[in-house]
What we know:
With 114 residues, chain A is mostly beta strands. Helices cover 0% and strands 53% of the residues of chain A. Chain B has strands at 4-7, 10-14, 19-25, 32-38, 44-51, 56-59, 62-67, 72-77, 86-92, 102-103, 107-112.
Amino acid sequence: KAGVTQTPRYLIKTRGQQVTLSCSPISGHRSVSWYQQTPGQGLQFLFEYFSETQRNKGNFPGRFSGRQFSNSRSEMNVSTLELGDSALYLCASSRTDSSNQPQHFGDGTRLSIL
Amino acid sequence: KQEVTQIPAALSVPEGENLVLNCSFTDSAIYNLQWFRQDPGKGLTSLLLIQSSQREQTSGRLNASLDKSSGRSTLYIAASQPGDSATYLCAVPGSGGSYIPTFGRGTSLIVHP
């Protein structure tokens, strides 16, 4: 059974650009969550999608957005990139409501902003 | 606001030792608590999920306990091996009907031969 797949694995952008990250959940999983991990702030929750609807949102500016498609695949977009957006972005999937199900993580996309 | 603290931040031990990693949280109204391990440059691997109604969960050499009233969980690793070297994180979902998980900063573990 394939795990959570995130693409691309590495990405280098410059300030002001925008970026789109992709996440394919485990087959049969309907919930997808996104996290940002940095040495300074640790792991922080961005948002969660379930059945194409955003269920929860963390404390991030509106430059961070996401969506989920009917096949449960999800994308995350960051516009007007800033140096502080450099981080490991992790995606996790769970079978249903992630509040009571184990989450399964991908290996992340490492985003570097120059 | 939920806060999660993990102690110690780092640990270096010889192979074969039994280990205890600690996780504490400020809001005891949690649905569950999950322990993860993270290898360098990788995502998180789920180790154990303890429901709020449970006291402990076991998987192989790992045992996790949960004491909601005191806001604490411990991860016990028996007979540690070099392959256990990783960062261990605990996470709790939000309270009040909204799931926004809070993660601890992790315990970085090195088990040397």
